[in-house]
Design a protein that fits this description.
The structure holds two protein chains of two kinds. By secondary structure, chain A is mainly β. Chain A contains no helices and eleven strands. In chain A, the strands form two sheets. In chain A, strands 2, 4, 5, 6, 9, 10 and 11 form a seven-stranded mixed sheet that branches. In chain A, a hairpin with a 3-residue loop joins strand 4 and strand 5. Chain B is mostly beta strands. Chain B is built from no helices and twelve strands. The radius of gyration of chain B is 14 Å and the shape is globular. Classes of the chains: A mainly beta, B mainly beta. Chains A and B meet through strand 4, strand 5, strand 9 and strand 10 of A and strand 5 and strand 6 of B.
């Protein structure tokens, strides 16, 4: 089954404790991205990756890191989480963007709480 | 600047009613893409449709239909004979080509319309 998987699905952590949210897709997509969803603010892009070893900032990258060592994986790293990073996080993937924008397929979401 | 407005925050209908969700967008470019996603109570985001700016044909898929009008910058979504399973938050989104400096492939989402279908 074609899908985007994320782990963990739920995480409660404390301020400053480094964490990684994994994301993997089995559709051979080159493009992957991370979004966060917050009440009243909607969905906003954090980082994206056009291909292996190519990543760039989205609209709200502060406090996050990403890496793209393999085509299928795109982990999101919070090196020193803070309470304002409490949110619902989505990973997504799509065909190569290039000059066109294709639909992005989203993972199930990771609900993160930072206390 | 790119912007997507979904003016209807919440809509409540009774099963079998038809309902239209509005979406108005702003963009600087003549080439852009529009999308609709569904977020049911379980939380996942489900892709419904993609439309490029050069294709103004309306689309129908079962009980779902979409009306794209460039003249009014609107991309409205209609559910015919709504069902309880249609209850969800629906998002309209816009994506532009990268040469205006925005992040490539970034989806600009509206704030969503929460649809409740009562039996």
């Amino acid at each position: 089954e074609a899908q985007v998987t994320q782990n963990p699905r739920y995480l409660i952590t404390v301020t400053g404790k480094k964490l990684t949210v994994t994301c993997s897709q089995n559709m051979n997509h080159e493009y992957m991205s991370w979004y966060r969803q917050d009440p009243g603010l909607g969905l906003r892009q954090i980082y994206y990756s056009m291909n292996v070893e190519v990543t760039d900032k989205g609209d709200v990258p502060e406090g996050y890191k990403v890496s793209r060592k393999e085509k299928r994986n795109f982990p999101l790293i919070l090196e020193s989480p803070s309470p304002n990073q409490t949110s619902l996080y989505f990973c997504a993937s799509s065909l190569t963007s290039g000059e066109a924008s294709y639909e992005q397929y989203f993972g199930p979401g990771t609900r993160l709480t930072v206390t | 600047a790119q912007k997507v407005t979904q003016a209807q925050t919440e809509i409540s209908v009774v099963e079998k009613e038809d309902v239209t969700l509005d979406c108005v967008y702003e963009t600087r470019d003549t080439t852009y893409y529009l999308f609709w996603y569904k977020q049911p109570p379980s939380g996942e985001l489900v892709f419904l449709i993609r439309r490029n700016s050069f294709d103004e044909q309306n689309e129908i898929s079962g009980r779902y239909s979409w009306n794209f009008q460039k003249s009014t910058s609107s991309f409205n979504f209609t559910i015919t004979a709504s069902q309880v399973v249609d209850s969800a938050v629906y998002f309209c989104a816009l994506s532009e080509p990268p040469y205006y400096g925005g992040s490539q492939g970034n989806l600009i989402f509206g704030k969503g319309t929460k649809l409740s279908v009562k039996p």
